[in-house]
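Worked example

This section walks through a single chain of length 273. The input is the sequence exactly as stored; nothing has been trimmed or padded.
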Amino acid sequence: MTLIAQITDLHIRPRGLACYRVSETNMLARRAIEALNAFDPQPDAIVVTGDLGDTPDEREYAGVQRLLSRLKAPVYVLPGNHDSVKLMRESLSGVGPIHEGENGKMHYAVDIGDVRLVALDSAVPGAPHGELGEAQIAWLDRTLAESDRPTLVALHHPPALTGIAHMDRIGLKDAAAFAGVISRHSHVARVMCGHIHRTIIAAVGGTVMTLAPSTGHQVHLDILDKGEGEFIMEPPAFFMHHHTRDSGVVSHLAYVEKFAGPYPFFADEGVSF
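Given that input, the structure is written out below as tokens.
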């Protein structure tokens, strides 16, 4: 069995500052870290699919380092559109092989238990949309051809339309090329991404895309395109991607906050149905 947790869109701010003056992302990310550390069994790895910081600010990445260093499980990160790849490389340690890659991109492949993680860099400096580029897409194709091990491909920008128009306008520009590569490699069991701040499931290249909600605020579900976008304080959550040889990859949504229970289904002695 291999268990991989996915969190995304932490948007860490300098100490004492809320994101958009409302969302206490530092506190909320800390609660997510605590929930992951309390999870039983512990995941074999934790993947953070981008937007670790909110702006290119050294203080934010110092905060990211403090938070992620508290995690018990090994951590792997990749950049989102709010991130600075330069500051990630300069400020973060113990979070996977972030110094690898070509053409300034932060991409790498690692084996975790009986699955493989391929992490991609869809960030475009100074722009909100995503783009992998021809060189990285070619690297992805070569890397997927190297092994038929069940593979999870992680990137920040979703390679599929979500129906939330203001977010789709800043989506992955070369999604069709990405999907074409994925469709040639049937051992890709999951595409993991973030960016939209909502739980979204879609099909990409003949496999399943699981888009994780943020550890902080969520994007308001506006599929009528009534405005330029708003956020809402729906409950933060994360994915647990569970792999066995019998089941393949099964993705579970787990909430950060605690709720009442668990309660037994049959609380009264001698009562059964």
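What to look for: The longest strand covers residues 237-244.
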